[in-house]
């Protein structure tokens, strides 16, 4: 029996087919991952793949004609296999230029590779082990279903492709899946005829496909039915929450649900009105790469689309999958942008338990077209709890231009007018506050001819855990940073003890460390918390000083306990807590307040522990001072602002108008976005810890909370308070004390009007201007020229700290102090020059 090597050496055309298939696949894969992919480049790659295909096709046809004249069907089957695989590779290369199918999902790409590989191995089955033979036939069977799907999808193209083939023959690619389907069926039948046992492998492959399709369709139908059920139930009950909130709470958060919600946003669906699959343009309201998933197409064919409109689906995606960055309004596309380089410059003040971080990002537009290539970069930065943005800069014509602070509405209006209406090449950038310790940054235009650069400054409290302080890196969503490099610099106002630096850091000088590396979004550093500094910062007639936060421990026997249950709770946690509180009045919220008893507690827990998130209606707590709310956070939930206009929000707004503090104990460190915002608005007397600490506190009837007043704000993550006084004595503390103080006080002031249109009050704006910080009422914006600022009525703040910088420390001189400094300088100068003046007059 001859070996495989001998067979290939004897048949040059088969060997050529293998080599050309390998080369064509490598060209297709490598060129598809090049940085500067563009229409011209894709077309060149296609013609290279097409040329390889034509060359081999001509070799096969000429050889067959020489051997069999017009009996071409008698040609060796091996040649046809490799010829059709080459045509398939060429077809997918053409698809990059003339988009018929969107980018394949991962499982489809893998299955296409396995199908072509199994098809290419079929001529050599006699040289393989029997087990491999069955394995290959299993995938050949799957290939029939896969190629058949593509063949059916392309039926609308068949009529126009035939006459168009008279040119360069490019339209012949439309028939490749059909030919592959027919040929693979013939190949499968021949294999069974040769070895009848292979019929079981072929049947297994077909059954696998049918089961997968059936399961996905059943899941689609089941989730779609639940969506309809929960929406109808909420409507009939006249629910206080919008339908989309109730749906996102209750449907399972899996891959099928995500694909249902992203249908026609990310995943193409079967289009009965147009050209089936390929006729419609996709929606651009959701910024995620459009993908082709045959299971989604077939599910919409057999089960139909969901009955939710686009806005509702996006809201559910935000609430279930934390897709807020993808759902942001986009005035221009940004799909060709990437983050090329990041400079992270951190100034840490251990003795003040705070840090100032500057992030300088370089953005590159990979599109090599010289026309129509303008794009908009949008970033979402995730900040440590209690952080505030205190500076923004944009490089224009090679020069750093610093931002002006103005109201959020005015900044948004100016940016949209320039970018969205006038489409001007005016170089604006804007940053807005978002709920959940996030901010969004926009930069326009990002052109193919020039990299853009902007700088963001963030003032952050350091998190205190035990005796240690923790600095957490500020990471972002936005143009991909997969290939980005980063320069990290850390400098300390004082060297702390037991400093645990990130990997790769080298000491450049005393207290200054630097690392040059690939970008890493997730890192932190730790060190021992030193004694707090007694220094103050003074500005505008007031001084600011940091102290250890005063923790008050009081006797607390709650008259009622409210459990905020969701899927993060375990049954063991619930049972352990119930044993400690079952003698008290305990409520849960399940469409209405339900008092727990021994006979209903397990049923209520079973229902509520399925919720993806919870939105406990704190306005239902009738005696806040005598009540305890126990919660456990979820990674995602609706933001407070998402609920605006609902009955839930209206009642919550009325509740917030009169200051009340509910005792909230959160089990664990994670807070849902909903609870996180209410906490920032000072709605709770907040305490966090594990279940054991909670049980101990309940047993001792004790509750700990931080004390705050009109002149003091507490930053509980750091365990410190910042106190404002009228002492004008200059100090050496950083100006970030004022910035953090102002941010926390603004959050407290906006609480009572948070859902109202008039929550932007002049005194709140004035406080934001003084500290130059981004908040719910204020934004930072960079415009190209002074005339642009004047056109939109944006003025530079007068009595302000201005943009923060690495040199922001110590007291800022008042106007009258500047006069004294000038007079003192003149007097000193006079005495220095006095001898020279005497000589001149002598």
Automatic annotation (TrEMBL):
Please report the stretch or stretches of sequence annotated as the VIT domain.
325-460
Q: Name one Pfam family in it.
A: VIT
Which keywords does UniProt give here? Membrane, Transmembrane, Transmembrane helix
**TM regions (residue ranges):** 12-31, 43-65, 77-94, 106-129, 136-159, 165-189, 198-218
Q: Which domain of life is it from?
A: Bacteria
| InterPro entries from the UniProt entry | Sorted_by_XrtN, VIT
Q: Which protein are we looking at?
A: XrtN system VIT domain-containing protein
């Amino acid at each position: 029996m001859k070996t495989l090597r001998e067979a290939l050496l004897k048949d040059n055309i088969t060997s050529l087919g293998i080599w050309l298939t390998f080369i064509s696949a490598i060209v297709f894969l490598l060129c598809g991952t090049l940085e500067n992919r563009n229409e011209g480049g894709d077309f060149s790659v296609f013609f290279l793949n097409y040329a390889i295909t034509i060359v081999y096709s001509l070799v096969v046809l000429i050889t067959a004609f020489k051997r069999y004249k017009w009996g071409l069907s008698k040609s060796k089957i091996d040649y046809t296999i490799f010829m059709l695989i080459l045509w398939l590779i060429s077809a997918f290369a053409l698809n990059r230029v003339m988009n018929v199918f969107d980018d394949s999902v991962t499982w489809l790409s893998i299955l296409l590779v396995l199908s072509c590989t199994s098809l290419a191995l079929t001529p050599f089955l006699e040289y393989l082990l029997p087990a491999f033979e069955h394995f290959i036939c299993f995938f050949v069977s799957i290939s029939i279903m896969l190629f058949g799907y593509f063949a059916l999808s392309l039926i609308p193209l068949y009529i126009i492709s035939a006459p168009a083939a008279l040119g360069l023959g490019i339209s012949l690619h439309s028939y490749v899946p059909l030919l592959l389907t027919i040929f693979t069926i013939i190949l499968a039948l021949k294999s069974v005829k040769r070895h009848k046992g292979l019929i079981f492998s072929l049947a297994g492959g077909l059954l696998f496909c049918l089961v997968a399709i059936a399961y996905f369709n059943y899941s689609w139908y089941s989730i779609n039915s639940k969506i309809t059920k929960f929406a109808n139930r909420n409507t009939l009950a006249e629910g206080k929450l919008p339908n989309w909130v109730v749906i996102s709470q209750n449907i399972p958060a899996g891959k099928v649900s995500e694909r249902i919600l992203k249908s026609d946003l990310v995943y193409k669906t079967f289009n009965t009105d147009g050209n089936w699959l390929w006729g419609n343009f996709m929606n651009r309201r959701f910024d995620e790469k459009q993908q082709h998933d045959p299971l989604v197409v077939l599910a919409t064919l057999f089960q139909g689309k969901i009955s939710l409109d686009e806005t509702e689906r996006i809201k559910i995606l935000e609430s279930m999958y934390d897709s807020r960055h993808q759902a942001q309004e986009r005035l221009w596309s940004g799909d060709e942008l990437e983050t090329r380089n990041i400079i992270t410059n951190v100034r840490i003040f251990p003795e003040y338990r705070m840090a100032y971080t500057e992030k300088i990002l370089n953005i590159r537009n990979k599109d090599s077209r010289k026309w129509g290539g303008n794009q908009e970069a949008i970033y979402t930065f995730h900040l440590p709890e209690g952080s505030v943005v205190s500076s923004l800069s944009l490089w224009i014509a090679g020069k750093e231009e610093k931002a002006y602070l103005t109201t959020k509405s005015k900044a948004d209006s100016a940016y949209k007018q320039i970018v969205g209406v006038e489409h001007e090449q005016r170089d604006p950038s804007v940053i807005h506050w978002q709920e959940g310790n996030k901010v969004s940054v926009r930069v326009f235009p990002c052109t193919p001819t020039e990299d853009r650069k902007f700088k963001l400054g963030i003032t952050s409290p350091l998190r205190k855990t035990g005796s240690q302080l923790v600095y957490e890196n500020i990471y972002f969503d936005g143009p991909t940073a997969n290939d980005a490099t980063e320069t990290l610099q850390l400098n300390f106002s004082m060297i702390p003890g037991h400093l645990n630096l990130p990997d790769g850091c080298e000491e450049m000088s005393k207290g200054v460390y630097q690392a040059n590396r690939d970008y890493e979004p997730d890192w932190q550093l730790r060190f021992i918390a030193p004694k707090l500094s007694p220094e103050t910062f003074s500005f505008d007639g007031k001084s600011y000083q940091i102290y250890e936060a005063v923790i008050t421990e009081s006797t607390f026997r709650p008259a009622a306990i409210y459990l905020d249950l969701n899927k993060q709770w375990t049954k063991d946690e619930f049972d352990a807590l119930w044993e400690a509180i079952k003698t008290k009045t305990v409520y849960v919220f399940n469409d209405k307040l339900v008092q727990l008893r021994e006979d209903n507690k397990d049923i209520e827990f079973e229902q509520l522990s399925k919720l993806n998130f919870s939105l406990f209606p704190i306005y239902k707590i009738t005696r806040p001072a005598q009540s305890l709310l126990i919660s456990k956070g979820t990674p995602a939930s609706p933001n407070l602002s998402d609920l605006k206009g609902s009955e839930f929000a209206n009642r919550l707004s009325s509740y917030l108008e009169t200051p009340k503090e509910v005792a909230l104990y959160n089990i664990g460190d994670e807070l849902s976005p909903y609870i996180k915002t209410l906490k920032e608005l000072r709605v709770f007397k907040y305490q966090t810890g594990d279940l054991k600490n909670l049980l101990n506190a309940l047993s001792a009837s004790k509750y700990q909370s931080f004390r705050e007043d009109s002149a003091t704000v507490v930053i509980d993550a750091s365990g410190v308070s910042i106190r404002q006084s009228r002492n004008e004595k200059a100090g050496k503390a950083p100006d970030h004390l004022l910035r953090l103080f102002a941010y926390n006080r603004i959050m407290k002031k906006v609480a009572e009007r948070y859902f109202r249109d008039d929550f932007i009050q002049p005194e709140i704006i004035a406080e934001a201007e003084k500290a130059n910080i981004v908040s719910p009422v204020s934004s930072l914006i960079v415009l190209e020229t002074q005339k642009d600022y004047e056109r939109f009525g944006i003025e530079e703040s007068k009595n302000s700290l201005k943009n923060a910088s690495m040199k922001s420390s110590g007291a800022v001189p008042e106007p009258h102090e500047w006069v004294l400094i000038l007079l003192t300088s003149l007097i000193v100068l006079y005495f220095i020059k006095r001898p020279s003046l005497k000589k001149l007059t002598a």
